[in-house]
Write a structure and sequence with these properties.
five-stranded parallel sheet; alpha/beta; eight-stranded mixed sheet
Length: 418
């Protein structure tokens, strides 16, 4: 059990309101926020932290990571092996936490084993939610085979579907296979189910403009998740894929890079969410060739790059519920905090802060528990040296402007006793 912590004389950003009260007291115990008051709180056994008027805010949430993506060329993930991929995950998640990300949602390849290692303290990292293996149709964005490679089917599979699979995805075709694959990922603790709803950049055999999965397949997966009180998120770049996935019941769109104004308005009218991922687009555009990103993928990335910021601006104009995610692969994981600066080309600091705090939990069906400073919420808190509501770059410095990082009531920075 962690020692209770009392923050005093804090300026509190609760994750939503731009009106930040000053001189606040916040008591944390048993991993939760127990009390918030404008007057002193009596807690004689608590460790006291004088905020000296600095900003106390919720821990950051990255809703689009790939912990096991140890190489920018996803075709290399299998040959690198599980141990290598796990070592990358440990390094990447540790860096993420030191940057102030107290929760991440892994939407491609995450599993119960990594969740358990984090929960049991074997490794240090953020609170970890995972969608398991992504569901992809044959020849879809999750099918990383080269054109020349003939089919190879596994009789035994970690996803128990008997289908072809890799480190990131399981191939499922037809309603029955899709239902079985979704059920099995949910059985293994998946927070949600992710599908490949369009072509992508990292895969070699599918055009980025291609819509993927039939209506009956998507609706079947959505129904399975609804029965589990979960939801479906879909990888989509083109506007056509975004629209049809939302129409068929998908709750969240990953990327949405090539969206147009009409589709953005459609998404907003249906109350769906989009998680743009600017950091990976800019990082791979600049470094992809150097890091071994395939030439075919680099060409597709160039297409995404040209529309990235304008697509996000269309979301803003339509009042789409925009969430915060990064999608970084391989060595580019160090650019996670750059996402704040890239979004500042379109959004105000307070809008970006809401995306990285309260909006992500709303999308993940976890409002009131994560991403907020509220009584009963998880004690995931940051103490910022400065005012991030006026200067978002304070959060883009890899944690250098964070005096305190608290995850689940545990002091990550500074370490307890240091």
């Amino acid at each position: 059990m962690t020692t209770p912590i009392l923050f005093k004389n804090a300026r509190v950003f609760d994750g939503s309101s731009a009106d930040c009260p000053e001189g606040m007291w916040v008591l944390v115990a048993d991993g939760l926020i127990q009390e918030i008051s404008s007057t002193p709180i009596a807690a004689p056994h608590a460790q006291s932290i004088d905020c000296a008027g600095r900003t106390l805010m919720p821990g950051l949430i990255d809703a689009h990571v790939h912990a096991f993506a140890s190489d920018v060329n996803v075709a290399n993930l299998e040959s690198l092996g599980e141990t290598y991929r796990t070592a990358h995950a440990v390094r990447m998640l540790g860096h993420s936490l030191q940057c102030g990300f107290t929760t991440v949602r892994d939407v491609g390849g995450g599993n119960y084993s990594l969740y358990r290692a984090l929960a049991d303290g074997l490794i240090t990292g953020p609170r970890y939610l995972y969608s398991g293996k992504v569901l992809s149709m044959t020849g879809g964005h999750g099918d990383f085979r080269d054109m020349s490679e003939r089919p190879r089917y596994q009789s035994t599979c970690a996803c128990s579907s008997g289908s072809l699979f890799n480190a990131v995805a399981v191939i499922a075709d037809g309603v029955d296979e899709c239902i079985k694959a979704a059920r099995d990922e949910l059985r293994q603790g998946a927070h949600c189910i992710k599908i490949m709803g369009s072509g992508g950049v990292a895969s070699l055999t599918d055009p980025i403009w291609m819509n993927q999965y039939r209506e009956d397949e998507i609706r079947a997966i959505v129904r399975e998740c609804e029965e589990r009180r979960s939801y479906v998120t879909a990888h989509c770049h083109p506007a056509s894929a975004v629209r049809r996935c939302v129409e068929y019941g998908v709750r969240t769109i990953e990327h949405g890079t090539l969206i147009d104004d009409e589709t953005a308005r459609f998404v907003a009218a249906h109350g769906a969410y989009i998680v743009p991922t600017m950091a990976t687009i800019f990082a791979l555009t600049e470094l992809g060739r150097e890091l071994g990103f395939p030439a075919e993928s680099q060409l597709k990335m160039d297409v995404a790059f040209k529309s990235a910021l304008s697509g996000m601006d269309a979301m803003r104009r339509a009042n789409v519920k925009v969430c915060f995610g990064t999608d970084l692969l391989g060595k580019t994981y160090t650019q996670q905090c750059r996402e704040f600066l890239l979004r500042s080309e379109v959004f105000t600091p307070v809008e970006i802060l809401r995306q990285a705090t309260t909006m992500n939990p709303e999308m993940m069906m976890m409002s009131g528990r994560l991403g907020c400073v509220a009584v009963g919420a998880e004690a995931d808190l940051l103490l910022v040296d400065g005012d991030p509501l006026s200067d978002i770059s304070l959060l883009a410095a890899d944690g250098r402007h964070l005096s305190v990082i608290l995850r689940g009531g545990e002091l990550i920075k500074p370490r307890s006793g240091s």
